Amino acid sequence: MIAYADSSFIVSLYSADANSALALARVETEQPLLIYSSLASLETSNALNLRVFRNQLSETLRDSILAEIERDIGKRVLIPRVVAEGTFEAAVRLSHKWTPQYGTRASDLLHVAIALEAGVNSFLSFDKRQLEIARAEGLKL
User: Fold this and answer.
1) Cβ count within 10 A of residue 103
2) Given CB 3.0 to 4.6 Å as the disulfide criterion, which of 32, 82, 110, 114 pairs with 3?
3) What is the C-alpha separation between 27 and 56, in angstroms, rounded?
4) Percent of all residues in the chain with a pLDDT value above 70, rounded to a whole number
5) How confident is the model at residue 115 (pLDDT cuts 50, 70, 90)?
6) Which CATH number belongs to the domain containing residue 44 in this structure?
7) Residue 61 belongs to what domain range?
């Protein structure tokens, strides 16, 4: 199975938080290959750096988590995907279609657009608005 994992899922999978047990259980049960977009990479790095800023995570632990992510990219557990220019156009279409109803942010729309473009089987996130859009677009949650 190939799934798209947004940054909320990746952060919970690789560092301890309220959703970590659920993320780990999902990965252990389904053992998906995870599409890891350049957007998710940026947001993951930023989320970990924010935890350092807030004294919730040491720089050493942040570096260890980022190294583990890189190892999993090397093992092809995480499959890197660069955000293509056309993805932004797809996100604009999603915005016109869904933001008036769900109040989604631009980055949420980009995650869903990347997943749709990648043709994944499943969408993994802990962001409720993102999940609403993914479901509305026919992705398995």
Assistant:
1) 10
2) 32
3) 25
4) 100
5) very high
6) 3.40.50.1010
7) 2-136
> Is the residue at 88 inside a domain?
yes
Q: Is 20 a domain residue?
A: yes
Token pair of 82, please?
């660069």
pLDDT tier at 111 (50, 70, 90 boundaries)?
very high
pLDDT for res 60: 98
Look at residue 141 and tell me if it is in a domain: no
Following DSSP, what letter does each residue of 88-111 receive, concatenated? HHHHHHHHHHHHHHH---HHHHHH
Is 109 buried (19+), middle (13-18) or exposed (0-12) by CB count in 10 A? buried
Average pLDDT over residues 40-60: 97
